[in-house]
Design a protein that fits this description.
Elements (H helix, E strand, L loop, with lengths): L21 H14 L7 H23 L2 H4 L11 H6 L5 H14 L15 H26 L2 H12 L14 H20 L5 H19 L7 H6 L10 H10 L10 H6 L6 H9 L9 E7 L2 H4 L7 H4 L13 H14 L3 E8 L2 E11 L9 H18 L3 E4 L6 H4 L3 H6 L6 E3 L2 H11 L6 E4 L5 H12 L3 E5 L3 H10 L8 E4 L10 E4 L5 H4 L7 E4 L13 E5 L1 E3 L18 E3 H12 L14 H10 L3 E2 L1
Parallel strand pairs: 1-3, 1-4, 4-5, 6-7, 6-9, 7-8, 9-10, 10-11
Antiparallel strand pairs: 2-3, 12-13, 12-14
Helix pairs in contact: 1-2, 2-5, 2-9, 5-8, 6-8, 11-13, 20-21, 20-24, 20-25
Length: 622
């Protein structure tokens, strides 16, 4: 057996742990049915409402802390939150469950008669709760916290909490039952005192608990939200309220800054870190901000995928994309944000990670996939992309890679437009299609002698066809444009040109089991493929697998090297640690230090060069 209060009794229940709220819900439902109206005099109802508000507090602080376009310059710890930390903190709300169940037992216990009377307001209770917080909760928590950092108590109970390298609002709830009970006592003592004195009220419970959670989330947000000027103007204030910098110093160094919210007790105990205020000033002024080495310029795919951003729900962004019915009620909100972005937004930072000392960021153009096909939107979208490139150039970014539709041939010639308009760019503009082609080509089995290619005259289609014909593989190129076909065929070596064959109908591929898809396929079009066909894809969004007797490849992608740091979100349709090939192409360009742009047509001779460079740097096929 493990140490008492070191593990959660409902750990094995998984998501079924939320059934622990069942008795409260049942009691409220029963009272509602009995009275015919919402039982506002029921503590069970108020505890459930408080649960919702507390969860919302944690979620809003989490979202704010991860809105890099607002908070990037004021982040205390510059590292990212990786998948390991996310998984460890997955059940952060165990603390909230425990506190809700304890509160329900107290509210329904005959031993606490003062709780039975539900007053909406009593100013005496607020004053008494403040007094008890300052004189009881703060010093008690301080000494309990210091005790948790000594000897076996730390290794048994508190080390788990400190195992998270970067604090987040959700980290505030991550820990063992013993730590949760200490926090429960800290938040509950002022309330117990107020009710014992006959001055408790419903508003006090809501106000005190939500303020307690608010301050905890603020401290763990990893974003400095208190101006250093406030402390300069009122020096005594620094002993009355802690800051995210103050808490982060404790979390990393573990031998200082033990207070709950008031550094006064660290001052009395001699445990204040002397760098707390100096570092807080530096962070508040944005002095720790860093220029990224590489930027992946993405765009939003659709309204549903927009709800999977890292500053949304961690349980969505940290897992491979899938349609979640639980998000359906938020669709109108996401749609409203899409409309607002059309009128008011500009390119913004979405996520980041580190690779071999280099900072890699993902920026997003505030446009959605379908908007790229609106003729009147073309000029505005190109302007957004151009401004992002110029911003990156001004900042000193080394490489910027264009994602998906941001490099659309009809939109800007695969990025050629921007390089032509700004010939003196220092930032290297990369479409990443060379590595995309390499990934697709290396997926094709070595014994294949014939392939069927749709999207055959696109940049990728052209490169794939020219590469395969050199390998003496017959390529059935689906296109109705004889002129474009002949132009590509003439680029091939004379001895390889006959391996390129123009076809105009899907029926021509009835005996070909290797389809390379660069254009959306309907169920009717897919039916022409023989049983056992494998569909390789470079079409966005990927085609839907209608055929059970066929197999479907994913979009071209590569797994980042194992030494990537701070990666905690998944790209659209990708698994953890996997990025689209055009993203990986930019990464390779940055790691190699190549000083040329990669725009426009794909240089077929460089496909093998880029592939070998990717493997050399530890990127692997996904």
């Amino acid at each position: 057996m493990g140490s008492p209060l070191a593990s959660w009794p409902w750990a094995s229940l998984g998501s079924y742990k939320y059934l622990l709220y069942g008795p409260l819900v049942a009691k409220v439902a029963h009272a509602w049915r009995e009275t015919g109206s919402l039982p506002l005099d029921s503590w069970c109802l108020h505890l459930l409402l408080l649960l919702v508000l507390r969860s919302l507090t944690f979620q809003l602080w989490f979202s704010y802390g991860n809105m890099l376009f607002f908070t990037r310059r004021r982040r205390v710890v510059k590292d990212g939150v990786d998948f390991r930390q996310i998984d460890a903190e997955w059940d952060w709300d165990n603390m909230v469950i425990l506190q809700t169940l304890i509160a329900a037992m107290v509210a329904n216990s005959p031993w606490f008669p003062g709780v039975a009377e539900l007053r909406s307001w009593d100013l005496r209770g607020w004053a008494l709760a403040l007094l008890l917080h300052v004189t009881v909760s703060e010093p008690a928590f301080y000494w309990a916290h210091r005790a948790l950092h000594r000897g076996p108590l730390f290794s048994l109970y508190h080390a788990k909490h400190h195992s998270s390298p970067v604090t987040q609002p959700l980290t505030a709830g991550f820990g063992t039952p013993l730590e949760a009970l200490i926090l429960t006592a800290a938040v509950g003592a002022p309330l117990a005192g107020a009710f014992a004195a006959g001055a408790g009220s419903v508003s006090l419970v809501y106000g005190h608990v939500l303020l307690f959670d608010y301050l905890r989330c603020m401290g763990y947000s990893n974003v400095e939200v208190i101006s250093h000027r406030a402390f300069a103007a009122v020096p005594a204030l620094r002993y009355l309220i802690y800051t995210p910098t103050y808490l982060s110093l404790h979390h990393r160094e573990k031998d200082c800054n033990f207070c709950l919210f008031m550094p006064l007790y660290d001052a009395l105990g001699g445990t204040i870190n002397s760098r707390s205020w100096e570092l807080q000033k530096e962070v508040d002024q944005g002095m720790n901000d860093r220029v990224p080495d590489f930027v992946f310029l993405a765009h939003v795919v659709d309204v549903v995928s927009s709800m999977h951003v890292p500053f949304g729900f961690r349980s969505c962004s940290s897992l491979p994309f899938s349609t979640r019915l639980v998000l359906l009620p938020l669709w109108p909100v996401a749609f409203a944000f899409m409309v607002l972005q059309w009128f008011f937004s500009k390119t913004f930072t979405v996520s980041f990670y580190f690779l071999r000392g280099r900072l890699h960021q993902t920026w997003s153009v505030p446009r959605y996939g379908f908007q790229y096909f609106i003729p009147s939107a073309k000029k505005g979208i190109n302007r957004q992309i151009e401004l992002a490139i110029l911003r990156a150039d001004k900042m000193g970014v080394k490489v910027i890679s264009l994602a998906a539709l941001n490099k659309n041939e009809a939109l800007n010639g695969g990025g050629t437009l921007f390089v032509s308009n700004h010939p003196n760019l220092r930032v290297r503009v990369v479409h990443g299609n060379t590595l995309t082609a390499a990934v697709i080509l290396n997926e094709i089995p070595s014994n294949v002698k014939e392939v069927f290619l749709t999207g055959a005259t696109s940049k990728l289609g052209r490169a794939i066809a020219l590469y395969l014909c050199r390998k003496k593989i017959r390529v059935l190129m689906l296109t109705v444009s004889t002129e474009r076909f002949l132009k590509i065929q003439r680029e091939a070596p004379a001895e390889s040109q006959h391996y390129l064959v123009q076809v105009t109908k899907y029926q021509a591929a009835q005996s070909c089991k290797t389809w390379i898809v660069g254009k959306w396929l309907s169920p009717r079009e897919q039916r022409w493929a023989p049983a056992g066909t494998h569909f390789h894809q470079f079409v966005v969004p990927p085609i839907i697998g209608f055929r059970r007797d066929c197999t479907y490849g994913k979009l071209a992608a590569m797994r980042l090297p194992k030494d990537v740091q701070g990666l905690g979100s998944c790209e659209y349709t990708m698994d953890r640690g996997v990025v689209h090939a055009c993203h990986a192409g930019g990464v390779v360009h940055c790691l190699e230090g190549w000083d040329h742009h990669e725009v426009g047509a794909i240089d077929v001779d460089r496909i093998d060069v880029v592939w070998k460079a990717a493997l050399k740097h530890g990127l692997t096929p996904a």
